[in-house]
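> @MW can you paste both from yesterday?
MW: sure, first one:
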Amino acid sequence: MKSIVLAGGCFWGVQAYFQRLDGVEMTKSGYANGTTLHPTYEEVCIGNTNHTEAVMIQYNEDKIHLENILDKFWAIIDPTLSNRQGNDIGTQYRTGIYYLDEEDLETILDSRSQLQSTLSKPIVTEIKPLEKFFEAEEYHQDYLKKNPNGYCHINLNQ
Protein backbone atom coordinates (compact mmCIF):
# COMPACT_ATOMS: atom_id res chain seq x y z
CA MET A 1 0.00 0.00 0.00
CA LYS A 2 1.10 3.53 -0.80
CA SER A 3 -0.31 6.82 0.46
CA ILE A 4 -0.59 10.36 -0.84
CA VAL A 5 -2.47 13.37 0.54
CA LEU A 6 -4.33 15.60 -1.90
CA ALA A 7 -5.96 18.96 -1.27
CA GLY A 8 -8.41 20.08 -3.92
CA GLY A 9 -10.73 22.52 -2.23
CA CYS A 10 -13.50 21.14 -0.03
CA PHE A 11 -12.52 17.66 1.07
CA TRP A 12 -16.04 16.24 0.70
CA GLY A 13 -15.86 16.04 -3.09
CA VAL A 14 -12.22 15.01 -3.23
CA GLN A 15 -12.92 12.09 -0.92
CA ALA A 16 -16.07 11.03 -2.80
CA TYR A 17 -14.27 11.20 -6.14
CA PHE A 18 -11.24 9.14 -5.16
CA GLN A 19 -13.32 6.53 -3.31
CA ARG A 20 -14.77 5.56 -6.69
CA LEU A 21 -11.42 4.62 -8.24
CA ASP A 22 -10.45 0.97 -8.50
CA GLY A 23 -7.30 0.46 -6.46
CA VAL A 24 -8.04 3.17 -3.90
CA GLU A 25 -8.38 1.16 -0.72
CA MET A 26 -9.00 3.89 1.89
CA THR A 27 -9.66 7.63 2.08
CA LYS A 28 -9.81 9.93 5.11
CA SER A 29 -10.75 13.60 5.12
CA GLY A 30 -8.53 15.75 7.27
CA TYR A 31 -6.39 18.82 7.75
CA ALA A 32 -2.86 18.97 6.35
CA ASN A 33 0.36 20.90 6.86
CA GLY A 34 -0.84 23.61 9.16
CA THR A 35 0.74 25.13 12.23
CA THR A 36 -1.57 23.88 14.98
CA LEU A 37 -2.07 20.46 16.51
CA HIS A 38 -5.46 18.72 16.32
CA PRO A 39 -7.39 21.59 14.70
CA THR A 40 -11.16 21.60 14.56
CA TYR A 41 -13.16 22.39 11.44
CA GLU A 42 -14.18 25.71 12.96
CA GLU A 43 -10.55 26.66 13.64
CA VAL A 44 -9.52 25.72 10.10
CA CYS A 45 -12.38 27.75 8.64
CA ILE A 46 -11.32 30.86 10.57
CA GLY A 47 -8.08 30.63 8.61
CA ASN A 48 -5.46 31.03 11.33
CA THR A 49 -4.25 27.38 11.47
CA ASN A 50 -2.75 27.35 7.96
CA HIS A 51 -4.18 23.84 7.47
CA THR A 52 -5.72 22.88 4.17
CA GLU A 53 -8.69 20.56 3.78
CA ALA A 54 -7.15 17.40 2.35
CA VAL A 55 -7.74 13.70 1.80
CA MET A 56 -5.38 10.90 2.75
CA ILE A 57 -5.52 8.28 0.00
CA GLN A 58 -4.19 4.77 0.42
CA TYR A 59 -3.91 2.89 -2.84
CA ASN A 60 -2.80 -0.47 -4.16
CA GLU A 61 -0.01 0.04 -6.69
CA ASP A 62 -0.90 -3.27 -8.34
CA LYS A 63 -4.23 -1.73 -9.37
CA ILE A 64 -3.55 2.00 -9.77
CA HIS A 65 -0.37 4.01 -10.12
CA LEU A 66 0.47 7.42 -8.70
CA GLU A 67 0.53 8.84 -12.26
CA ASN A 68 -3.13 7.81 -12.68
CA ILE A 69 -4.10 9.33 -9.34
CA LEU A 70 -2.36 12.59 -10.24
CA ASP A 71 -4.03 12.70 -13.68
CA LYS A 72 -7.40 12.33 -11.98
CA PHE A 73 -6.49 14.97 -9.39
CA TRP A 74 -5.47 17.55 -12.00
CA ALA A 75 -8.75 16.87 -13.85
CA ILE A 76 -10.96 17.81 -10.87
CA ILE A 77 -9.23 21.02 -9.76
CA ASP A 78 -8.16 24.32 -11.25
CA PRO A 79 -4.47 24.29 -10.30
CA THR A 80 -4.05 27.94 -11.30
CA LEU A 81 -6.35 29.28 -8.58
CA SER A 82 -4.86 30.40 -5.28
CA ASN A 83 -6.85 29.66 -2.11
CA ARG A 84 -10.00 28.82 -4.03
CA GLN A 85 -11.88 26.03 -5.74
CA GLY A 86 -15.45 26.46 -6.95
CA ASN A 87 -17.38 28.66 -4.54
CA ASP A 88 -15.02 27.85 -1.67
CA ILE A 89 -12.60 30.66 -0.87
CA GLY A 90 -9.90 30.75 1.81
CA THR A 91 -6.47 29.36 2.59
CA GLN A 92 -8.02 26.07 3.72
CA TYR A 93 -9.15 25.52 0.10
CA ARG A 94 -5.72 25.86 -1.51
CA THR A 95 -4.67 22.93 -3.65
CA GLY A 96 -1.79 20.72 -2.68
CA ILE A 97 -0.02 17.43 -3.16
CA TYR A 98 1.62 16.24 0.04
CA TYR A 99 3.82 13.19 -0.33
CA LEU A 100 4.89 10.67 2.30
CA ASP A 101 7.51 8.94 0.17
CA GLU A 102 10.40 11.04 -1.17
CA GLU A 103 10.57 8.68 -4.14
CA ASP A 104 7.18 10.02 -5.30
CA LEU A 105 8.47 13.57 -5.74
CA GLU A 106 9.91 13.00 -9.22
CA THR A 107 6.60 11.55 -10.45
CA ILE A 108 4.69 14.47 -8.94
CA LEU A 109 6.99 17.09 -10.49
CA ASP A 110 6.87 15.36 -13.90
CA SER A 111 3.08 15.30 -13.72
CA ARG A 112 2.94 19.01 -12.88
CA SER A 113 5.39 19.83 -15.66
CA GLN A 114 3.34 17.94 -18.23
CA LEU A 115 0.18 19.76 -17.18
CA GLN A 116 1.91 23.16 -17.05
CA SER A 117 2.92 22.76 -20.70
CA THR A 118 -0.79 22.82 -21.61
CA LEU A 119 -1.75 25.87 -19.52
CA SER A 120 -1.27 29.60 -20.05
CA LYS A 121 -1.36 30.45 -16.32
CA PRO A 122 1.12 29.13 -13.75
CA ILE A 123 0.18 26.19 -11.54
CA VAL A 124 0.03 27.30 -7.89
CA THR A 125 -0.71 23.89 -6.36
CA GLU A 126 1.62 23.25 -3.42
CA ILE A 127 3.93 20.26 -3.65
CA LYS A 128 5.48 19.49 -0.28
CA PRO A 129 6.26 16.61 2.01
CA LEU A 130 3.44 15.81 4.40
CA GLU A 131 4.33 17.38 7.75
CA LYS A 132 1.05 16.98 9.61
CA PHE A 133 -2.28 15.31 8.95
CA PHE A 134 -5.16 15.29 11.39
CA GLU A 135 -8.33 13.37 10.65
CA ALA A 136 -11.39 15.57 10.30
CA GLU A 137 -14.38 15.11 12.55
CA GLU A 138 -16.51 12.01 11.92
CA TYR A 139 -19.37 13.98 10.32
CA HIS A 140 -16.96 15.01 7.52
CA GLN A 141 -15.98 11.41 6.71
CA ASP A 142 -17.90 10.07 3.68
CA TYR A 143 -19.95 13.27 3.83
CA LEU A 144 -21.43 13.02 0.33
CA LYS A 145 -22.43 9.39 0.89
CA LYS A 146 -24.28 10.47 4.02
CA ASN A 147 -25.61 13.66 2.35
CA PRO A 148 -26.07 12.91 -1.37
CA ASN A 149 -27.42 16.39 -2.07
CA GLY A 150 -24.52 18.11 -0.29
CA TYR A 151 -22.54 20.83 -2.07
CA CYS A 152 -19.63 19.71 -4.20
CA HIS A 153 -17.61 21.75 -6.70
CA ILE A 154 -16.35 18.55 -8.36
CA ASN A 155 -18.17 16.74 -11.14
CA LEU A 156 -18.21 13.27 -9.59
CA ASN A 157 -19.08 11.69 -12.94
CA GLN A 158 -15.71 12.44 -14.57
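MW: second:
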Amino acid sequence: MTSRFAAGSVAVVPLRDGVSGKSRLAAALDPGARRRLVVALARHVVDVLVADERLVGVVVVTADVPFVDAVLSGAAPGLTGSSSSDRQSGLPVRSRTADVIREPDGRPGLNGALDHARERARRLGADRMLVVHADLPLLTGDDVGAVLTADADVVVATDRHATGTNLLSVPLGGHDDGDGFSFRFGPGSRAAHEAEAAARGLTSAVVHRTGSAADLDTIDDWAGLPAALRARLL
Protein backbone atom coordinates (compact mmCIF):
# COMPACT_ATOMS: atom_id res chain seq x y z
CA MET A 1 0.00 0.00 0.00
CA THR A 2 1.30 3.45 -0.87
CA SER A 3 1.89 5.69 2.14
CA ARG A 4 0.02 9.00 2.08
CA PHE A 5 1.71 10.37 5.19
CA ALA A 6 5.33 10.84 6.23
CA ALA A 7 4.56 9.15 9.54
CA GLY A 8 1.57 7.66 11.30
CA SER A 9 0.09 4.31 12.24
CA VAL A 10 0.09 1.04 10.36
CA ALA A 11 -2.72 -1.33 11.31
CA VAL A 12 -1.75 -4.99 11.72
CA VAL A 13 -4.42 -7.69 11.63
CA PRO A 14 -3.36 -11.17 12.78
CA LEU A 15 -5.38 -13.90 11.08
CA ARG A 16 -4.96 -17.64 11.52
CA ASP A 17 -6.33 -19.85 8.76
CA GLY A 18 -9.59 -21.11 7.35
CA VAL A 19 -9.56 -24.40 9.23
CA SER A 20 -8.80 -23.87 12.92
CA GLY A 21 -10.56 -20.55 13.53
CA LYS A 22 -13.48 -20.15 15.94
CA SER A 23 -13.30 -23.70 17.28
CA ARG A 24 -15.11 -22.63 20.46
CA LEU A 25 -18.22 -22.00 18.36
CA ALA A 26 -18.36 -25.65 17.24
CA ALA A 27 -21.42 -26.36 19.41
CA ALA A 28 -23.41 -23.76 17.47
CA LEU A 29 -21.84 -23.70 14.01
CA ASP A 30 -20.62 -26.47 11.72
CA PRO A 31 -17.14 -26.22 10.10
CA GLY A 32 -18.49 -24.63 6.92
CA ALA A 33 -20.39 -21.97 8.85
CA ARG A 34 -17.36 -21.22 11.00
CA ARG A 35 -15.22 -20.83 7.88
CA ARG A 36 -17.73 -18.41 6.36
CA LEU A 37 -17.78 -16.52 9.62
CA VAL A 38 -13.98 -16.15 9.69
CA VAL A 39 -14.09 -14.85 6.11
CA ALA A 40 -16.88 -12.35 6.75
CA LEU A 41 -15.31 -11.01 9.94
CA ALA A 42 -11.87 -10.63 8.38
CA ARG A 43 -13.23 -8.80 5.35
CA HIS A 44 -15.22 -6.47 7.56
CA VAL A 45 -12.28 -5.56 9.80
CA VAL A 46 -9.85 -5.07 6.90
CA ASP A 47 -12.36 -2.96 4.97
CA VAL A 48 -12.88 -0.68 7.98
CA LEU A 49 -9.12 -0.22 8.25
CA VAL A 50 -8.25 0.37 4.60
CA ALA A 51 -10.99 3.01 4.42
CA ASP A 52 -9.33 4.99 7.21
CA GLU A 53 -7.15 7.72 5.71
CA ARG A 54 -5.41 8.26 9.06
CA LEU A 55 -3.55 4.99 8.56
CA VAL A 56 -0.31 4.67 6.60
CA GLY A 57 -1.17 1.09 5.64
CA VAL A 58 -2.78 -2.21 6.63
CA VAL A 59 -0.85 -5.45 7.11
CA VAL A 60 -2.40 -8.89 7.58
CA VAL A 61 -0.03 -11.39 9.20
CA THR A 62 -0.95 -15.07 8.88
CA ALA A 63 0.30 -18.63 8.77
CA ASP A 64 -1.91 -19.28 5.71
CA VAL A 65 -1.14 -16.69 3.01
CA PRO A 66 -3.15 -18.41 0.20
CA PHE A 67 -6.27 -18.46 2.37
CA VAL A 68 -5.92 -14.80 3.33
CA ASP A 69 -5.23 -13.78 -0.27
CA ALA A 70 -8.44 -15.57 -1.26
CA VAL A 71 -10.38 -13.97 1.60
CA LEU A 72 -9.36 -10.47 0.57
CA SER A 73 -10.02 -11.13 -3.11
CA GLY A 74 -13.54 -12.42 -2.50
CA ALA A 75 -12.71 -15.97 -3.55
CA ALA A 76 -12.08 -17.81 -0.29
CA PRO A 77 -11.81 -21.59 -0.82
CA GLY A 78 -14.61 -23.68 0.59
CA LEU A 79 -17.29 -21.04 0.00
CA THR A 80 -20.17 -21.70 -2.34
CA GLY A 81 -19.22 -18.86 -4.69
CA SER A 82 -17.95 -15.48 -3.62
CA SER A 83 -20.83 -13.49 -5.06
CA SER A 84 -23.43 -15.54 -3.15
CA SER A 85 -21.50 -15.30 0.10
CA ASP A 86 -20.96 -11.57 -0.29
CA ARG A 87 -24.63 -10.94 -0.96
CA GLN A 88 -25.51 -12.80 2.21
CA SER A 89 -22.97 -10.96 4.35
CA GLY A 90 -23.60 -7.52 2.88
CA LEU A 91 -19.85 -7.08 2.44
CA PRO A 92 -18.08 -5.90 -0.72
CA VAL A 93 -16.87 -8.54 -3.15
CA ARG A 94 -13.27 -7.43 -2.81
CA SER A 95 -11.47 -5.80 0.09
CA ARG A 96 -9.23 -2.94 -0.89
CA THR A 97 -5.48 -3.22 -0.67
CA ALA A 98 -3.83 -4.82 2.34
CA ASP A 99 -0.28 -6.14 2.61
CA VAL A 100 -0.31 -9.87 3.45
CA ILE A 101 2.78 -11.40 5.09
CA ARG A 102 3.55 -14.87 6.42
CA GLU A 103 4.22 -15.58 10.08
CA PRO A 104 7.84 -16.63 10.69
CA ASP A 105 8.32 -20.36 11.17
CA GLY A 106 10.61 -20.00 14.17
CA ARG A 107 8.44 -17.58 16.16
CA PRO A 108 5.07 -19.24 16.68
CA GLY A 109 2.11 -17.62 18.35
CA LEU A 110 0.36 -14.29 18.21
CA ASN A 111 3.04 -12.25 19.95
CA GLY A 112 5.75 -13.62 17.68
CA ALA A 113 3.65 -12.88 14.59
CA LEU A 114 3.21 -9.29 15.73
CA ASP A 115 6.93 -8.90 16.35
CA HIS A 116 7.47 -10.00 12.76
CA ALA A 117 4.84 -7.59 11.42
CA ARG A 118 6.44 -4.70 13.29
CA GLU A 119 9.31 -4.50 10.81
CA ARG A 120 6.90 -4.34 7.88
CA ALA A 121 5.07 -1.51 9.65
CA ARG A 122 8.33 0.40 9.94
CA ARG A 123 9.12 -0.12 6.27
CA LEU A 124 5.74 1.42 5.40
CA GLY A 125 6.90 4.61 7.08
CA ALA A 126 4.97 4.34 10.33
CA ASP A 127 5.99 5.50 13.77
CA ARG A 128 3.14 3.63 15.49
CA MET A 129 1.54 0.21 15.14
CA LEU A 130 -2.15 -0.50 15.67
CA VAL A 131 -3.00 -4.15 16.33
CA VAL A 132 -6.60 -5.02 15.44
CA HIS A 133 -8.10 -8.46 15.94
CA ALA A 134 -10.07 -9.92 13.02
CA ASP A 135 -13.19 -10.93 14.96
CA LEU A 136 -14.90 -7.60 15.64
CA PRO A 137 -18.27 -7.62 13.81
CA LEU A 138 -19.35 -4.19 15.14
CA LEU A 139 -16.08 -2.36 14.54
CA THR A 140 -16.41 1.07 12.90
CA GLY A 141 -14.07 3.81 11.77
CA ASP A 142 -15.10 5.82 14.83
CA ASP A 143 -13.86 3.01 17.07
CA VAL A 144 -10.52 3.00 15.27
CA GLY A 145 -10.35 6.78 15.51
CA ALA A 146 -10.94 6.69 19.27
CA VAL A 147 -7.82 4.56 19.67
CA LEU A 148 -5.71 6.53 17.18
CA THR A 149 -6.49 9.87 18.81
CA ALA A 150 -6.28 8.88 22.49
CA ASP A 151 -3.72 10.97 24.36
CA ALA A 152 -1.31 8.28 25.56
CA ASP A 153 1.78 6.40 24.39
CA VAL A 154 0.02 3.04 24.63
CA VAL A 155 -3.72 2.69 24.03
CA VAL A 156 -5.73 -0.46 24.79
CA ALA A 157 -9.27 -0.94 23.49
CA THR A 158 -10.48 -3.62 25.82
CA ASP A 159 -13.03 -6.40 25.36
CA ARG A 160 -16.49 -6.53 26.93
CA HIS A 161 -15.03 -8.11 30.08
CA ALA A 162 -12.51 -5.25 30.41
CA THR A 163 -9.68 -7.78 30.76
CA GLY A 164 -8.57 -8.47 27.19
CA THR A 165 -7.11 -6.38 24.35
CA ASN A 166 -8.97 -6.10 21.05
CA LEU A 167 -7.07 -3.10 19.66
CA LEU A 168 -3.65 -1.95 20.78
CA SER A 169 -1.76 1.16 19.65
CA VAL A 170 1.93 1.31 20.50
CA PRO A 171 4.98 3.32 19.44
CA LEU A 172 7.31 1.40 17.17
CA GLY A 173 10.48 2.42 18.99
CA GLY A 174 13.91 1.48 17.64
CA HIS A 175 14.61 -0.86 14.75
CA ASP A 176 15.72 -3.64 17.09
CA ASP A 177 12.60 -5.48 18.18
CA GLY A 178 14.23 -6.08 21.54
CA ASP A 179 14.13 -2.33 22.18
CA GLY A 180 10.43 -2.00 21.33
CA PHE A 181 7.23 -2.55 23.25
CA SER A 182 6.71 -6.24 24.05
CA PHE A 183 3.33 -7.62 23.06
CA ARG A 184 1.57 -9.41 25.91
CA PHE A 185 -1.46 -10.98 24.28
CA GLY A 186 -2.96 -13.84 26.28
CA PRO A 187 -5.11 -14.09 29.41
CA GLY A 188 -5.33 -10.76 31.22
CA SER A 189 -3.68 -8.91 28.34
CA ARG A 190 -5.14 -5.52 29.21
CA ALA A 191 -3.35 -5.46 32.59
CA ALA A 192 -0.24 -6.99 31.03
CA HIS A 193 -0.07 -4.29 28.35
CA GLU A 194 -0.59 -1.54 30.91
CA ALA A 195 2.19 -3.03 33.04
CA GLU A 196 4.47 -3.26 30.01
CA ALA A 197 3.86 0.43 29.30
CA ALA A 198 4.58 1.41 32.89
CA ALA A 199 7.78 -0.64 32.96
CA ARG A 200 9.02 1.27 29.90
CA GLY A 201 8.05 4.68 31.27
CA LEU A 202 5.17 5.09 28.80
CA THR A 203 1.74 6.50 29.51
CA SER A 204 -1.28 4.32 28.82
CA ALA A 205 -5.00 4.75 28.28
CA VAL A 206 -7.93 2.35 27.99
CA VAL A 207 -10.75 2.81 25.46
CA HIS A 208 -14.18 1.30 26.11
CA ARG A 209 -16.46 1.28 23.06
CA THR A 210 -19.15 -1.15 21.92
CA GLY A 211 -17.65 -1.64 18.46
CA SER A 212 -14.19 -2.49 19.72
CA ALA A 213 -15.37 -4.47 22.76
CA ALA A 214 -17.65 -6.93 20.96
CA ASP A 215 -15.30 -9.70 19.90
CA LEU A 216 -16.54 -13.12 18.82
CA ASP A 217 -14.94 -16.06 20.59
CA THR A 218 -17.56 -17.98 22.53
CA ILE A 219 -21.11 -19.27 22.22
CA ASP A 220 -22.25 -16.44 24.51
CA ASP A 221 -20.56 -13.88 22.24
CA TRP A 222 -22.36 -15.34 19.22
CA ALA A 223 -25.73 -15.48 21.01
CA GLY A 224 -25.31 -11.87 22.11
CA LEU A 225 -25.20 -10.55 18.53
CA PRO A 226 -28.46 -9.33 16.97
CA ALA A 227 -30.12 -12.10 14.95
CA ALA A 228 -30.03 -10.01 11.77
CA LEU A 229 -26.26 -9.55 12.09
CA ARG A 230 -25.73 -13.27 12.72
CA ALA A 231 -27.65 -14.01 9.53
CA ARG A 232 -25.55 -11.53 7.50
CA LEU A 233 -22.29 -12.99 8.79
CA LEU A 234 -23.23 -16.47 7.56
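> thanks! The two ends are 29 Å apart (CA to CA).
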